[in-house]
Recover the amino acids of this structure.
């Protein structure tokens, strides 16, 4: 019994310490985002490259997933709504469920699977190869040069890709609403516009920004925890990715709680 | 040494080239970051400097595909990008381990002698005989 209590206590202390470190690091980086002196040619170059790698290279896959996944879910949703006789709530379902909940969740999962893993590995490899030390020797601030562009890119990518996913889902919704309910474009647009609330959009935007910050910040933090041994790279990526998925779930739950309040 | 820290351009195996940047980016990084030099201007400058070693063709390569001599030249140029650079080469024969003497290194330094203020070489005493211009302290 004593061992069990000790174990619970230790894991609680470990979790709170890890959370404290993550939040302190987030505060440090976010405060740099607001510092205009942090931006220079080198940082802008990294930011452009990162946006290209995260948002442009993934576009064909992302659009395909959005079209397939969006269509299937929209059809299921519309058939259920028809069966339950709740056609008058179709707009609320489309905006409230598909756009506000599902779209950011799938978007962040796709970006995290691809970019968070890449960032975590990249930083861990740089740590192992002593390239972080190289930057320090030449007085290049690692937060400004390495971390800031990746985190800004995370925010920009999640927000923009979420918009894209939502547009694809709503477009497939237009097609299937015509096929299933015989809705015209004007009626569909009317139903959707009447279901949009400013508070929901604000929560959606804040959620996407928070996702963007944490799916890049956590891999960076765990990449930095790699030691000088090559074997520490997979361990750091594994731990980082697990924490990224925990963070995604926590943010999703918190956003739902805020919405319910 | 501490007072010259901001001017020192270190060359050492312990301070490697950044592996996810190509050669020109590695050299230009200091200019881009510290002097906010525009990308196009920085690239032009680096290509001009690489031309001194007839190495323009490696500008878009990554460090892993370079020979030890090419790597040394790139590290040298990177160090020379520091404003009023004081170049410090840490045990050069560890980087140029196939070189029998200091001829290659001295030639490389001479080709860019307008880019740095001073150059110091840190070396083991038993390697003293490998230096052609031997004025070691």
């Amino acid at each position: 019994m004593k061992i069990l209590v000790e174990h619970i206590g230790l894991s609680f202390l470990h979790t709170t310490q890890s959370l404290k470190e993550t939040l302190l690091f987030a505060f440090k980086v976010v405060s740099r985002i607001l510092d205009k002196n942090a931006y220079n040619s080198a940082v802008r170059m990294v930011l452009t490259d990162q946006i290209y790698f995260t948002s442009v290279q993934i576009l064909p896959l992302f659009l395909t997933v959005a079209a397939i996944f969006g269509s299937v879910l929209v059809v299921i949703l519309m058939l259920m709504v028809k069966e339950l006789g709740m056609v008058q709530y179709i707009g609320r379902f489309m905006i409230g469920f598909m756009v506000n909940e599902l779209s950011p969740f799938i978007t962040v999962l796709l970006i995290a699977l691809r970019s968070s893993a890449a960032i975590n590995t990249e930083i861990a490899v740089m740590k192992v190869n002593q390239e972080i030390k190289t930057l320090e020797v030449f007085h290049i601030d690692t937060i400004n040069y390495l971390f800031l562009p990746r985190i800004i890119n995370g925010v920009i990518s999640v927000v923009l890709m979420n918009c894209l996913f939502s547009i694809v889902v709503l477009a497939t919704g237009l097609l299937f609403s015509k096929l299933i309910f015989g809705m015209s474009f004007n009626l569909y647009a009317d139903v959707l516009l009447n279901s949009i609330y400013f508070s929901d959009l604000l929560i959606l935007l804040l959620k996407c920004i928070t996702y963007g910050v944490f799916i890049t910040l956590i891999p960076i933090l765990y990449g930095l925890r790699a030691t000088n041994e090559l074997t520490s790279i997979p361990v750091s990526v594994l731990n980082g990715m697990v924490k990224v998925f925990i963070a995604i779930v926590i943010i999703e739950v918190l956003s739902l709680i805020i919405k319910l309040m | 040494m501490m007072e010259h820290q901001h001017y020192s351009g270190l060359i050492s195996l312990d301070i490697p080239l950044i592996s996810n940047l190509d050669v020109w980016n590695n050299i230009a990084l200091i200019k881009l970051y510290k002097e906010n030099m525009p990308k196009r201007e920085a690239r032009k400058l680096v290509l001009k400097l690489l031309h001194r070693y007839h190495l323009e063709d490696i500008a878009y390569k990554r460090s892993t595909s370079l020979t030890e001599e090419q790597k040394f030249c790139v590290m040298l140029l990177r160090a020379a990008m520091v404003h009023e650079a004081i170049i410090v080469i840490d045990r050069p024969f560890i980087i140029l381990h196939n070189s029998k003497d200091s001829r290659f290194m001295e030639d490389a330094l001479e080709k860019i002698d307008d880019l740095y203020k001073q150059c110091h070489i840190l070396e083991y005493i038993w390697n003293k005989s490998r230096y052609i211009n031997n004025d070691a302290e």
Q: What stands out?
A: The longest helix of chain B spans residues 39-52. Chain B has a mean pLDDT of 88.
